[in-house]
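Re: weekly structure request thread

Next one in the queue (620 aa):
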Amino acid sequence: MKKILLLITVFLIVGMTAYSQVKVTFTVDMSVWAKNGYFVPATDSLRVAGDFNSWSTTTTNLTKGTGADTLKYMVQVSGVPSGIAHYKFLFANSLGLQWEDNFPTTSTNRESTIGASDVVLPVVFFKNITGKLNHVQFQVDMSVPIKAGKVIIGTTKVYLAGDMTDWGNRAVEMTKGTIDSIYTVIDDSMSSGSTRNFKFLYSTTTIASATWEDDPNRTYFVPEKDSSIFFDYWNRQNPNVQTGTGKINFTLDMSVMIKSGIFNPAKDSVIISAGFNGWTTTDPTQILTQNPINDSSYFISHNFVVEPFGDKAYKYDVLKRNAVGIDTIWKDGYERPIFWGGGNREASFKGEVTRDTADYYDGVHPDWFIPSGTNLKVTFNVDMTPAMDGTKQAIPFDPAKDTLWWLSEEPAFARSQGWYRPADGHMKILKLAHVSGNLYSGTLNVKDPGFNAFEYRYEWQKGSDATWVTEPAGFDNFAYRIRYAGQDVASHFPKNPWNMPKDTWTNNNLKTDQEKDPYTSYTTGIKTENLNPVSYSLSQNYPNPFNPSTTIKFTIQKAGLVSLKIYNLLGQEVATLVNQELKIGSYSYSFNASRLSSGVYFYNINAGSFIQTKKMLLLK
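Done, posted below.
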C-alpha cells in the first residue's frame, strides 16, 4: 500500500511540474537601437510575442525602466507553461512592426527553459546587438574610373567619406592593395548596431574638388561580429560593363516658371547638378547658357569619355540672384521632377556620338500653365484607415485630438503660391477635415498664374504634445504623390472645382498614388455622349493639325471590345488610347502628343467588324 501511495505522489508531482504555469519576467536592452535612431522611446511601442501569447503582436507591451536603466524594458507574463518557451521581441513604429532577426536555434526564435517556479530571465539586447566597437574594412574596386583615365594610380587619391568622418571634412584616404584597382581602409571604431552612410570619392588635388559617387548614399549596418568587410565597385559599376565616348546636350525649358512669375531670366540662372559633375551647385562651368533666340530655353553639353553605358542621374537647380521680398522664400532651387515622383532625372547613355534631351523644369509642360483668372480649386482626399491601425502605426492617428494636413513637396509650386516653409518643414497650408468614415478632405484654392502639377504627402500634428507624424519619404523615385487637375486642352480646366482621386495614408517610402499627366487624369473615365447611335463611326480629330492635344470621337453600335491606337509613319504603335469593353454609345477621347515629334500620325479603331484608320498632323 505504501508503494502505491508513493507512486501516486510521484505521479502527481511530475504531472503538476509538467503542466505548471508560472510568471516569467522578460527584459530587453534597447539602448543601441535608441542611440542609432531606430527605436524612439517617446513614440514606439515595445512588445514580446511567443507561443505563450499565441504570438500576439499587440497585447504584451514592455515598460521602460527608470534612472540608469531607462532603456531596459521589462514585462512580467503570467501563465507561461513550463518547458521550452519560444519568443521574440518586436517594436511598432511609423514603418510598422520591427521584429528581431532569426536566431541560430531550431525554431529560429529565442528559446528559454522555463521550470516550475517564477523566473526572471537574463537581460538581453534587441537582436543581440550590444553596441560594442568593431573593425570594419571598406574596399572599393576603382577599375572603371581607372579604365576611363579619371583615376591615375600613384597620382589620384581615393577616399572614404561619410557620417563617421563628418563627410568631406575628415575624409579618410584609402590604400591601394596588391591588386591595382582595389583600395582599402579600416575603421576601428564602429559600434555594432549602427548604420553608416557613406560614399567613395577621388581627387588629384584636394577633397574640396573631389569627384563623388552618385546618389543615393551607401549604407552599411555594422554587425555584432568584428572585422566585417564591405566591398563594391566604384559607383556600383561592374568593370566588365560596356563603355563608350559621346556627348549629351541638355536642353531645359523654363517658360512655365517665367510665366508664373517666379523665375527672372534677366538675373536668375540654372545649373545642372549630376553624378557626372559631383552634384555641384556652385561650379560656374555647369551653369546653363540662355538661348539667345528663345529666352526661356537653356542648354549645356557634357562630354563622356570611356563612360559606362547606363542611366546618368541629374537634376536642375535654380540659382536666385539678389532675391528680395517674396522671392527670398524660394530657398531650395533643386527641382523635384514630377515624372520621377521627385526623384532624379535619368538620361540614358549608350555611347552615342551625340544625343539631346528636351526637359522642362520640374517636368512641368507648358500646356499645364494656369493663366491668371482661372481660380482653380482642387480637393484632396485621403483614407486614414491604415494610420488608425495600431499594428501598422506605432501611435495611431486620433481623430478626436490630432490635426491632419496636406504638405506640398514641390519648392517651385510653393513659391508660385507664396508659401513660406518654416525651418521645421511643417507648412500648415491646407488642413483636411473629416468627411465620413475614415475619409478626410480639403480644398486648395490655387493662386494664379501658376502651374498644374501637385507633388505632396500627408502629415498630422498630435494634439497630445504638438509633435508631427509625416508619411515617410526617402531619396528614391516616387517618394511623393503626383496628381493633376484634369485638362482637355492646353491651360483649360473643363471641370472646376476638380476632385482628386482618393489617396490612402501609407508608411512606405514609395507612393503608388501617381498620375501621368492632366489629360490622362481628365480622360481616365471615357465620356459617353449618345447612348443610341445608329451606326459605327470614327470622326476626324479636332483640331487638325494640332499641338499637342486633339480630340478623337467615335460611336459604337454594339457592345464589345474596342481598341483605339496611334501609329507613326513607320507603322509603329506609339500610344493606346482605348483597349477595353465598351457599351453602345458615342465617345470622345483627348489625345496628348507632347512627347512625340512633329509629323503625320494615324489613329485606328477596331470594334468588332468595324475597322477604320484616319490621318492626323502634329505640328510643333
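Residues 94 and 393 are 5 Å apart (CA to CA). Residues 7-18, 525-531 have pLDDT under 50 and may be disordered.
Next request, please.
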